[in-house]
# Entry
Amino acid sequence: MNPVVDAAQRAQALDVQRSFRVTAPAGSGKTELLIQRFLALLPTVERPEQVLAITFTRKAAAEMLERLVEALWAAEAATPITSQHQQRTRDLASAALAHGRQLGWALTREIARFNIRTIDGLCSSLARQMPVTSGFGGAANPLDDATPLYREAVNELFSLAGGSRPEAADLDALLLHFDNNWEQLSGLLAAMLGKREQWMEYVEAGRDAGAAERRLVATVTALVGEELAQIEACLAPWLARLYPLFAYAQGQLGNTVPALCPAADAASLESWRAIGNALLTGGGELRKRVDKRNGFPVGNDAEKAQKAAFHALLEDIAESTPALPAQLKRLFWLPSMDGNSSSWQLVIHLSRVLPLLYACLLLVFSRRAAVDHTQIAVSAIDALGDDDAPTELALRLDYQIAHILVDEFQDTSNLQYRLVERLSRGWQQHNAEHPATPRTLFIVGDGMQSIYGFRNANVGLFQRAGEQGFNGLAPEPVALQCNFRSQQHVVDWVNSTFAEVFPDAGDLRRGTVGFSAAVAVRPPVEGEPAVEAHCFHGEDGAAQEASWLAEQIASALAGDSAGSIAVLGRTRGHLAPLVGELRRRNIAFAAQDMDPLGKSPLVIDLMSLCRALANPGDRLAWLALLRAPWCGLSLADLHLLAGGDKPGEPNNPATLLLFETAPAGLSAAGQTRFTRIAGCLRRAWHKRDQLALRVWVEQLWEQLGGPATALEEGQLQDAQHFFTLLERAEREDIGLDPAWLQERVDRLYAPGGAPESRLQVMTLHRAKGLEFDWVIMPALARGQRNDQRQILLWDEFNGSDGSHGFLLAADDHGLGTVPGLYGYLQETRKEKVRHETARLLYVGTTRAIRRLTLSAVLSPEDPESEELVPGEFRPPADGTLLAHIWPRFQREMTVHASMAIEREASASHKLRILRNPPPAPPAPEPGALNLPTPVRNRLERCVGTVTHWALERLASQSPLPEALTGQLSAACEHQLRQLGLNPALLAQAIAAVTANVNQTLADREHGRWILDAAHEDASAELALTWREGEQLRDLVIDRTFVDRSSGLRWVIDYKSSGPGEGVALAAFLAEEAARYEAQLRSYRDCMAQLDDTPVRCALYFTRLGLFHPLPQLDT
Amino acid sequence: MSTGNFSASFELGQLAAHLDAGTLLLTPNQRLARVIKAAWDRRQAEKGLSAWHPATVKPLEYWLREQWEAAVTRGACPPRARLSGAQAREIWLRVISADRASNGDYTLLQTTAAGDMAAAARDSLLHAGIDWERPAVRNEFQLDNDCGTFYRWLRAFDAELEAAGQVTASDCLRALLEATDAARCEQILLVDIDSVTPLQQACLERFCATPGKVSSGGQPAPVHCSSYPDRSAELRAIAQWAADSHSTAPQRRLGIVLRDMQGDRGRLEYELRRAFGHFGDDYTALPVNFSTALRLDQVPVVRDALRMLACCQRRISLADLLGLLRTRFCTVEFARDTDIARLIEKVFADAQEQVELSRLRFLARKPADSEAMPDQATLATILGALQSLRLHTRRQLPSAWAESFGSALQAWGWPGPGYLDSLEYQQVEHWYQVLDDYSAMDSICGELGLDEALSLLQRCCRAKLSQPKTPDHPVQVLGPLEAAGLQFDALWVCGLEGSAWPEPARPNPFIPQRMQRQHRMPHASSEQQWDYASGLWRQYRQGCRELFASHARQLDNAPQLPSPILQQYAIAEDNSDTPAPEPWRLALAAAEVESVADDTAPPVADSHAPLRGGSAILRDQAACPFRAWARRRLGLQELGQPSAGLSAADRGKLLHDALEVLWHTLQGSRQLASLSDQERAQAIETAVQQAMDAVPDSLRILVGMHCLSLEGRRLNSLLQEWIELELQRGDFLVEASEVQCKLTLQGRELSLRVDRVDRLPDGRSIVIDYKSGKCRVRDWSGERPAEPQLPLYSIATDASAIAFAQLRPRDCKLLGVGETEGVTGISTALAKSLGADDAELQWGELKQQWQQKLEHLMAEFLRGDARVEPQPRACDYCGLQALCRVEAERGAGA
Ligand code: SF4
# Structure
């Protein structure tokens, strides 16, 4: 082991009194450092929640928590430790535990108290805890893909087109600019909504259109100013000599120029362009010579002298400032704010429409009660309040965040930066007042590994954090140098190579990062090459590269010395050839996110199946079911089924399959297959909505023979993956929605083989944070498919003074007479992408522990030449990974002689047919008629209930009142109101109940006798459990008592009903008696079990005051 | 009451004696009360009794409510109307939006969520016995914005209740405390109730000096812990365990506690079905009860009812429409109707995400001569019936709406012909109950319009939990709370990850946190969460003979720790992955698959009628024979996606029409040249206008007038640009526009249309085809010319040149080939521009070559050649992949 040279810095980083900004290059063990810092901070707070750690991914958060808690558990259990730096972690953990015990924390069990969050997690919890302030209203569960909502918002916007709002005019202008292609514009705007965190805060404020424009002008002015300043700085050493000559030349050309060199501000952009023109050729090269067309005639010696002087100047510049042309070139893409240029107008229109669009989105959010991640972040930040009206977060949370640690800071976005700013507001002041207990920031990152530009990550911010800090609280820089991962040779190679690639110092605004070298802790591994470069060429170069690499991998895997191997590529496309080759050779590997789920044959057929089930009119899908291997109907049969050549009146295959018999004329085989498939489908159709969605489709698929149609067992996993989607669709209440499914299968990837496999294939982005003994990076000379002209471009402007703004431009179709914002953004975008690819390459190479293999397919300068040597290849295209390290690669590469690779001719398209499909399931048995009778006449039901209730009460009263009055009547009214009757109905109901009860009370002979409280063992609403054979039944008997005189037990059931229109009383009574006889019989039998008094049963009709015994039930 | 072996085999233990003594037992929930009653019933039955008084056991909340009712009846409490939860929510919503209106300094994305939290907050305050009228309390609320705002709502809510004489369930307890009469004292025992709120405690004490506490549980059971790679593996293992132990001892009472019921229930049920072998068939035979209640708005029968009602509004989403067309709960089986396919194709052709009902009614109309019986219901008649109800014009009380909705559903014949399974049967019953709850909103909501009425109904269904009554099974799947106090032979608690058990504290954001901690309000602090979790844990252990606990080591590939509650136990690491189901693998192993070549459809029947589709047939044939067959002979096409604005086809049509009109007036280059700029502009203006006037109303309604007028403006400038170009051309006469002609290939007549024919002074003619996209002359070359239309036309006529008129904004040009010298854009260097080998290629020969190639394509088509052989990129915009299987079979080749 080499010494840990940065031990001092690491120790310093644990000083909990100070804030730090730690640069932690690849392999520097930053996670351990974060854990230690976290532990070290715990003893400084009253509640563990006060230490907040923010990570980039949920995975990272979980890992951090895991290691933290394990450290604590280990400390508590005092498990023995083995190494030095473990000792430090252990000490810190023990200290934290001790402190916790004093304050009565239960750190080892209240895991949830550790405040380790992702940005998203943190934001949603903030939003949740401030429902009103965040304007959120409630718990926030963001959609994984909010595109449908964006689309809906755009439709909202479009519905305002032609309306009276001022923005309508701007919208029209936009629509016309995009050739009235609403769909296209809708797509663009939807995409913008997806990235609105970049522009919202700028356009939001600009609610009134003028403000939006002023903002934009201000931003562009600032931008141009800074650019010019940079150029001026670069030109400074020459200006004294240059300007007079320039002025002279312009004079010769009849142009007047200011006597003095113009200031570096937007206003004088044109003058600077003129200077640029004087120095550069049209091609952007430094001029070698000039003549009178440039204002340097040679009429006399004086003129000759001037010309000579200029030539001299040009030579000197070329000599000592080779970078100048590159700088000057920028002059020609700097945007001019020409108020009436169409492109500028376009920008204005956009900046006016966007706020309205955002408003529409909010509308959709609340309509759908759903949001996206950005909205949560935005709400959270709003909730923290702006600097004029800060929110007292401590009150809200009931604790004060005292320390913040942020990981992967190089990948944060402006929004996230702002969040940290607001969370740490007022800390500087606090620290001034409480120097003993300062609040601290701890920011860890590595600019050289910033690769998420496409996700709004802004590497400049990591620098800004150092230079400007957060509200004046500036973390001190700490630079780690040690690399614990890669062996020395690899580290050395990376150092020397990337020193050339990265500039020495970063540039905040242009988003470039300065290089810092690493120091290897692992000693060099001798005897094997650490880094190799391989070059292939010729017709089958790519195939050759793939097969050679596969060869190497195979033999490495054969031996067990190789350890873990990773093949890393920029895109799936770049990896495809090698992946194919590995598959062909049956070399097992794990490939995360390689093959889109939607392209798996099983999934394709499953999609057709779902399409069909979801839509009986989707002829294409239903026919597809018949063509899939489980049926494999011939074209001839399909033709017949689909009703071919009958334009206008085609058949609907769904109708045929589900309800009709196989049409005549089908081939014999067709007949059989049609019938089988129809059998499966009919059964499924019959069961629709009765089974869980997944089970329903999965069973049908099995019955069709789906599993048997897989090409190899691995594919079955794709199907499983698909079915879990159905599960989710049901859970999320989406149901069977083909569009939703398609959206998912296109975005998801097929499960990629054994995760534990020694060989891993993945994209560079996925490899971030991982390490492998041997890293292979193929196809380095392949470029991105150059994404076609972006129609909208935008970018954030980060001024060196910390000011920031937003730039947006729409494709001006190259019409602008003067360079427009669009052009500028295009150029800067190119630039940024170039920088990021360099960092991507760095990330890739630094994954290697022992060995790194780079390879590329190159094209020779002269295709004819035979024996090629390194010097004879064309340099890789700009924008490729290789372009960044070309010189070195070229020096070190091994050239493989090109050879033809034979591949099997792609087999012509065949129809696969499953010969032994499962038998058709039995035909569905028609269910029995089974319908609950609709419940109507709510009023009567209420009256009935309350009448019963009242009678129950009365039964216990003596003396029995003459009528329903006083307290009880009030109580009845209350009961009725309780049932939610509206005033009108309530009045009727009260009347009815009163009538019922009074009628009963008025019935001296029976009514009052029934209610008489003096009866022996009388009870009302008597609940009983009764065993009838093996059946237990619960009964409630309205009224029962033993009549002293007769010695009979009466069982009485109240009825508030009465004969309907024109129904004779006798008929009515007979009917009711018949209806309730069974019920009363069970009452009778039950009572008979309790004692042996003879039982009599009767119905009592309260409304009629009529007593109706059922003699047939007498015992 | 079932004697099913789960509930009844609950061991009453000491409870029995108390029940005999007639002591009142109060339980934390209905479930436990039911179980105790069942056990008691069994006991009585075993005693040989055949009728008895039921056990005196009730859920605490339920019993307290009874006491309040009684007090009101006695007149000891003021008679206030007790609000249901749903009613209370409506009031909260109203209060909140009123407050927003008056202090409009905030917006809320999810008002309903806020309402629910507010309701919960108020309950917590009541139960904690906090009097928010006290100044001290008020001040504490004022300290921050959220609590302050809530406080305003709170006061407003109270005021509303006061005014309407209403109370919430919690208010009732409060009232009970203030009952004017002394209540009788009862023997009360709390069963398995760990904690009661201060309010409940106070109430209880009014009735019974100090309610005793008993636990139904016994000795803590031994614990077995295990961990799994991920949740799927965990659930699969549990399912397997349940199946195995059930098959060995069918009477054992097994319990499965899902920590995350919502998230894991579906998967567990699936795995259980697999393990028990009740997959799909004998679906209902699975001996498992799930405690999950379904939200009524989610159950199919109600979901579709709501969709049916949605058809009373102005538009319905495409997804809902499809849902209706496959519903089981309507008397009409739409899939039985062949025309449904045509209807659906038309609807998709409109490419609207929201389908206008008026449009739908129009499309659904059957042709008068259709064989459908007049009295037989169809989509058309149903929609007609709905419309005649004119519900959208009404404002009425919920109870009245309940009636109206009833009749609207009648139009659909909901809930269908009546073959419901027992679950659906119950759900329909629940629906009728909801309608009662809904009617009970009269006094809360007042009169509503259709849209409000429907969304209120939505909310009511959403709030209604439909707990299916199923026979009592030996295996129970329960939520964490429900399992507490029950008894099992073996219980498995799953999902015990450290991050989730105990759950993170979730204090109510509307109550100052200090106050919540101080009063130990539920879930307010992690300390409490721990007590809560460990309390449950204790009950689990006492409630069973064997306790299994498990957790997943990874969730969405983030590592997970075991719950600290498992710290003291050894955890067995299980590493079994989750392979594809056995049946699948067997099926695959046994599969006999053969590959056959099948690429010929029946030949096109001979006939004298011209082929429909004209040149498009050969375009498809050239691109891919299969496509030509599927599109042109089966009339298949992919159902499109919804899209905004005018479709490409419609725009093309407008463009063509405008140009036709224009040249109809201009005749030719002379007249064009003779016009002044402004006259020219005028001519274009008029042409565009006429084209616009010809737009069918259906389209106007679909895309809206504004979109069309913009299109008009666009066309105007586009034509300006184009005409500039025509002005540069030499002399020509537009001989014909939109011309038809016939051509016979392979003895079969093909009818062609071409946009325009120009006649040059020398008598030669140019055939022109308007294109709004990018055009390539190369599309005429190759063995299978991608754009055969003009070549076809050229051989059908004496044309001396053919040309695309590319009308793309900022990129207008004429490009073509022929023998017409000196016409800009038309190349006479045929070989060069077509990339032909024969450098000397002449126009005549070219036409002959075309003739041969096109004859060949035609022959292919006629003989039914349907090979799947796409030209490069042909598949990109084809959409027939599902049928031709070009992608599905890609892997099969190797
Ligand atoms: S998708 Fe491709 S292969 Fe299939 S029919 Fe269309 S063009 Fe032919």
Q: What stands out?
A: Chain A touches chain B through 185 residues (CB under 8 Å).
